[in-house]
Batch of 3 targets.
Target 1
Amino acid sequence: MNLNFSGKTVAISGVSSGFGVAITKRFLSLGANVFGCDVSDTAFSDLERLGAVLARVDLTNSSSASAWIEDVENSSSGVVDVLINNAGGVAGQTKKPIEQLTDEEWRVVIDINLGSTFSLCRAVVPGMKRTRSGTIVNISSGAALQASMTGIQAYCAAKHAVLGLTRQLAHELGPFGIRANTVAPGFIVTNEATQKQWDAYGQEKQKVLLEQIALRRLGTADEIADAVLFFASNLSTFINGQVLSIDGGK
């Protein structure tokens, strides 16, 4: 069966690096009308040349998140068919004991990962309810299922919460024909931050980590994008409230 998103409006957050770039390119290649946002415009020019419509948006501001979805709806068919919540990260933070963590450090990571997901879901649902259709795919993490390799408490808590939100939305929105699922990537080097983290482990710890993966390698951003496409496509029309771990087998 061929995947085809022609005529579909797809909204993707966090498009400037890593998973976001790969996901955006995948949907564009399959005919989707792709609208993306990020707080940084690092990769905008390349994606815009491929046909994506992009905007700089601070998704930690819920009003800005809602306004972006309104702009997308006004610029397209009037409704978002597929929402991909990919924005996230650790805001440059590194591991430290919880007693040394400030309120601001906690808040910013929660807002980037959980707050943005909540705001965009809330914004797209009215349109999806009108058409009684729609798909939400939230990018979580292996840290949604266990302790985070980053050691960052807020990141682990936020990713667990994204999974919980997804399951609750699946239950709430299913009667309206709207599906919500989660992709949980394992450790994948996709940008400067994850490359720095991987390098910091050193050869010995890298070897140990790879031996814990059944396929004995790290994954790629394209492999995450493929999982997102599956959840967004007509290949998964009876799959709802699920989490798909893309980690090579643990």
Target 2
Amino acid sequence: MNEITKEEQRDVQLGLMSYIDRVCREHGIEYSISAGTLLGSVKYKGYIPWDDDIDMMLTRPNYERLMEVLMGDLPEHFTLLYYKSHTAYLPFAKLYDNRTYFISELDTLNKGTGLFVDIFPLDSLPENKVKGEQFKKKVRTAVTKLVSSAPNGLSYASSEKRLYFLVKSLLWLPYHLRYKVRSRVLAEKVDILMQKYNDEEHKFCNFVWSPPKRTGYFDKGIFTEYEDIDFEHLKLRKIKNHDVYLSELYGDWRNPPKKRAVRNHSYYRWYWKEKND
């Protein structure tokens, strides 16, 4: 097996992001890099030393437009993981490089996929945060059913902690037995549910499958203006008012903790399917 080095991993991710950026510019689709990727671009003009992935976010209309374009045509070595085009068990899209794959003791949900860029839709949330948290809880329950419908749904975990993984597996067992093999129907239900408040006038939005309370309520106004920013050797797009977003997400984002400020995928080992010398 040809294990992918950290440098190669980043080259692949940047290739994916470069393609997405080009498609968005050609079709007039606005997006912003997000989470640790946005933090890294502002502080380091690239990856945060302890981060290992690329995230991006789009308002729901732009997200749907991007999905339509990516479903229409892709380079041969790219695959869109999105429930309308492939079997998918998460409520967001991934564009991955199908020349690569991973081995993980914890995540078998996405088995067979490769190095990726996460693409998150932003949907409306009620101003009343009690109501908003109830809605987010309902979304999380629906996503649990979706994830549990996967053949390996019980093996999925987004944590490096084995105890957490085992406890979650036990809690999800009833869902797995009930909802297995119904993934397409469940994915569509989740997608519709996430858009519940989009037809109403609400001030806030977020990726609504987000942790309770911790990553909150973004004013929609910050998603109306965008600008270019350097990220490694690329020039990508970001929201102009990144301070409001990063402050809501990380608090004192200018002085984040040295480690664990963002999600890390250290429980993955990446490999080339075929390595051309």
Target 3
Amino acid sequence: MARPAIHPGEILADELQELGMSGAELARILHVPTNRVTQILNGQRGITADTALRLGQWFGTDPELWLNLQKSYELRLAEQEVGAEIQKTIQRRLSSTYQEPMQV
């Protein structure tokens, strides 16, 4: 069974809940529009590099953590949407050297 796609907004929401903070408060701290944080928390917007830098600065984490959460989410979605089709239609390379497909 495929792992579920967890939007980084869910993780951010958990962090804010533990801190007893609202999205609007976080938006003020990060100097971003409230709707940016609200959309992230609602899973309607992804975490950009700019937002990752701001979250990293405030939480004291590496900004790559936030970007990696976003990329992991996107990869899980892609696996769910097209992963099986890709596995069926693209053969894995078996040799250490590339060989042109045979022309018939």
